[in-house]
Design goal:
Elements: E1 9-13, H1 18-28, E2 36-37, H2 51-60, E3 64-68, H3 71-74
Parallel strand pairs: 1-2, 1-3
Length: 79
């Protein structure tokens, strides 16, 4: 594979803690943490039909979205 230029990433996880699990893994992988965005789910959980995903992509120019695990974001959740 040819190297590509760094880009913005949205990383959502429904199982692992961001501070105690995800961030240390990203640091170990030498990720540029300034390019990793997380959508705030404190007030409302995220689903695939959530308008916040499109808004985050547009505002931040994200080229990759990681939903871990995808099943957690597919179910309809009460608002």
């Amino acid at each position: 594979m040819k190297p590509i230029q760094p880009f913005q990433v949205i990383y959502q996880t429904a199982e692992d803690g961001l501070g105690d699990t995800v961030k240390p893994r990203l640091i170990e992988a030498a990720a540029d943490l300034d390019r990793v965005l997380v959508i705030d789910e404190a007030k409302r959980e995220l689903t695939l039909s959530d308008e916040r995903i499109e808004k985050a992509i547009i505002q931040n120019g994200a080229r990759l979205i990681i939903l871990d695990p995808i099943q957690a974001y597919m179910a309809t959740k009460p608002t």
